[in-house]
Design a protein that fits this description.
Domain Transposase IS4-like: 106-257
Largest sheet: 6 strands, mixed
Protein name: Transposase IS4 family protein
Shape: globular
CATH architecture of the largest domain: 2-Layer Sandwich
Number of strands: 6
GO molecular function, one term: transposase activity
Helix content: 40-55%
Structural class: alpha/beta
Pfam families: DDE_Tnp_1 (PF01609), DUF4096 (PF13340)
Number of helices: 9
CATH superfamily of the largest domain: Ribonuclease H-like superfamily/Ribonuclease H
Organism: Methylorubrum populi (strain ATCC BAA-705 / NCIMB 13946 / BJ001) (Methylobacterium populi)
């Protein structure tokens, strides 16, 4: 039976859209936007608009006018991407959330996998994943052991996973991540994978399903990246398909969704500790 305390705990306090930042979430990210001169734009609204686009998947011209002209939002969206804002926020929050969950701030174990995604009708790179029979792009993602994205790379779907692994490790290193080991599935083997792992001093640990097991069975630790793909693809409609015209824009969409997840996790941990 619902009590008054339950109603207060679960009351929807959002004044407009569920994707909007709460006051606490805005207070967390606002210092990172202190270097911008917004002129007539409200930076909080620009961030809210980016999150709204990610959650709803609406076209740019369908963006609600609450956020201001869509052209203004697009300008700030592209500026945030060019400045690497989402990666900076994600790096800080990943370390903070891991510490709050009793894990070292710097992940020692990473998980690597890819997801083939059907492309929309827009122009841009695409290919065919012959194994999964998907024509579109492939998202190559490296996460920590808690499932938060450390690096992402988008290629045509016909690019082999081992070819992209080296590029992804390079990108993670540029972002300041230096895991000691990486969990992968059976496709990540061969000379290219060995060379990429050796370049970054990584111990590649292949996890495969036992031969006697029939059907689906989650593998220890590696299931977290599958959960990450599921969360990104189902809770953020802009990621249900590939709607972007460039790999950089597609990678940015992953970064925005990852930042939103981290913000929610960070404040959920704070609320639990309070």
């Amino acid at each position: 039976m619902w009590t008054n305390a339950d109603r207060e705990t679960y009351r929807d306090r959002s004044s407009r859209y569920p994707s909007d930042l709460t006051d606490a979430q805005w207070a967390t990210v606002a210092p990172l936007l202190g270097g911008y001169d917004p002129l007539t734009a409200d930076l909080r609204e620009m961030v809210n608009a980016c999150l709204y686009l990610e959650k709803t998947g609406c076209p740019w011209r369908y963006l609600p006018t609450d956020f201001g002209p869509w052209e203004t939002v697009r300008t700030w969206h592209d500026r945030f991407r060019a400045d690497g804002l989402w990666s900076e926020i994600a790096g800080l929050l990943t370390r903070a959330v891991r510490q709050k969950r009793g894990r070292p701030a710097e992940p020692r174990t990473a998980i690597l996998d890819s997801q083939s995604v059907v492309s929309g009708p827009q122009a841009g790179v695409r290919g065919t994943d012959g194994k999964k029979k998907v024509r579109g792009i492939k998202r190559h993602v490296l996460t920590c052991s808690r499932g938060f994205v450390l690096a992402a790379l988008v290629t045509a779907a016909n690019v082999h996973d081992t070819q992209a692994a080296g590029w992804l490790f390079d990108r993670a290193a540029q972002a300041g991540w230096a895991p000691e080991r990486v969990k992968v599935d059976g496709i990540y083997t061969g000379a290219r994978m060995d060379e990429a792992a050796a370049r970054h001093g990584l111990d590649v640990q292949v996890s495969t399903r036992p031969p006697e097991v029939k059907g689906f069975e989650p593998l220890p630790l590696r299931w977290r990246i599958e959960a990450t793909f599921g969360t990104l693809s189902t809770r953020y409609r802009r990621l249900t398909r590939h709607w972007e015209q460039s790999p950089a824009a597609a990678e940015d969409a992953i970064s925005i969704a990852n930042c939103h997840r981290l913000l929610r996790a960070y404040h959920r941990e704070q609320d639990c500790a309070a």
